Description:
The structure holds two protein chains of two kinds.
Chain A: H1 2-8, E1 12-21, E2 24-34, E3 39-43, H2 50-58, E4 65-70, H3 79-83, E5 86-89, H4 101-109, H5 118-124, H6 140-152, E6 158-162, H7 170-185, E7 189-194, H8 197-203, E8 206-211, E9 214-219, E10 233-237, E11 258-260, H9 265-279, E12 284-289, H10 293-300, H11 306-311
Parallel strand pairs in A: 3-7, 3-8, 5-6, 6-7
Antiparallel strand pairs in A: 1-2, 1-4, 8-9, 10-11, 10-12
Chain B: H1 3-20, H2 22-43, E1 47-51, E2 54-57, H3 58-89, H4 91-96, H5 102-132, H6 139-163, H7 173-187, H8 200-208, H9 210-223, H10 229-249
Antiparallel strand pairs in B: 1-2
Amino acid sequence: MAEIARQEGAAIEVRGLIKSYGDVRAVRGIDLLVERGQIFALLGPNGAGKTTTVEILEGYRSRDGGTVRVLGYDPARQRRQLKSRIGIVLQSSGMDRYLTVAETVAMYAGYYPRPRPVDEVIELVGLQTKRGARVLRLSGGQQRRLDVAIALVGNPDLLFLDEPTTGFDPSARHEAWEVIKNLAGLGKTVLLTTHYMDEAQYLADQVAVISGGRIVAEGPPATIGNRERARARIRYRLADGAMPPADLSASPGPDGLTELIPDDLTTALHRLTGWALDQHVELTALEVARPTLEDVYLELTGSPAGAAGSMQPAVPELAGQKGRHRS
Amino acid sequence: MNGAALTLSQVRYTNKAFWRNPASAFFIFAFPLMFLVIFTALLGHGTVRISPTQVVNTSTYYVAAMASFGVISACYTNIAISVTTQRDEGVLKRTNGTPLPSSIYLGARMLHSLVVAVLLVAITAAFGRAVYSASIPSGLTLLRFLVMLLVGAAAFCALGFAITAVIPNADAAPAIVNASILPLLFLSGVFIPLGSNAPAWIVWIARIFPVWHFARGMQAGFLGTAFSWTDVLVVAAWGLGGLLLAVRFFSWEPRA
């Protein structure tokens, strides 16, 4: 894959992108590099400039400044050539409600020079059982899958997914995630926008956090914002009256949990658990956690909820779960 | 697929969606036929003086008038409402993100409206012939009639595309479309014959807008009245104006 990327150039290259709507400077100088075959997530709060950026790349909007290359094309000048090689899932866009799933996919297939077989695409998004159902009979999640099917049927090299799971219930979100994961298996490049941390963490190879029209951090989800180097927290609950070593103790927070951020995690954890074993004390709710992607995000985007967010229970990564937020 | 095949395929999908949508199938297609039956049944026994020298049965008059109404319904009303709905639902934006040329998408909608219009005119004519022995155009009259029909249908489609530019959203579409066309249908003698003693101001309004000219051209086919190329030209000019406005102001995205 890396070899191909070098031969053909990056899927998306953006430098110094600028866009204003009247007095509102929606995009203030964005640089992006998306390699072929990557799932790239553009993460940011509402109004950060995600959709504006993506719609410029798709050719829907003109830009005020900067250079943009999508699959080697300039979307502002070569939109026609670009259109047959990209697939677009817009944040919200309808389809004819009186056509069936199969008719809809077949209709869009007819627009492209080299479409994928209709039935193959329907199966890929898991709508086989709804083949003959009219669009107005589909659930929200099923309509979103049809969105993805329409975006895929032209056999594009690059897919744009603008907030593909906003408004979904948890099971519909997980279904959509599986579909998107499968796209990477087809060798597609995916540019995804989202304001869900767990979505970016689960799906993306590379994340860029956008805030106020600028990229404020970029990297793989595991290390973005120096997450991996941030110091871990130990949290535990003690039975009444138990007194751990003074340097491993602190007054419990409102939730009854003692929290500390030791300089040397391994030593601190060893001493704490050793003490508990010696004293026959149980450390209930013991957890060790690093800042979540959400903590990093809230800090980077300067959200007023940032302070509260970092107080929230951290993700138990040691238990093997990824990025799920306890709530 | 080449352009023609793609257009035809698009017409077929537009057609499927049209007939499966109860609102469009009823309001666009059944309405003119229902009016035809009601008007001819209620008022069909009198006569109308359509020129100083010519008097026709009201029933025959309404066959021609409802054929005109059918074309306006299938083209102007249908396009204006369905395209606004598709714009609001994001169908147009999605289509605009695919390689389908916009001329094919819009051309297919126009072609489909034309097919529905011709179907409505044919049913109206057959009804008039069977129930009221209305005369059916033939020979040179038929040829002129077809010219008026096609020019009129295309012009009302163009005007339908143009008016979407001033319709803010799908909810407002039926109201704005009806407000723009219903008064004209009354003022142009489609629902009520203007007769020979209509107020001058009504006649003047009728002459400015395309509905009266179109209805006159259609009458010439059914009633044997004089066919005037001026009527065709006026309707064509309105159509051209509509097309220019549509090209300039048509939006593929919902209006915020």
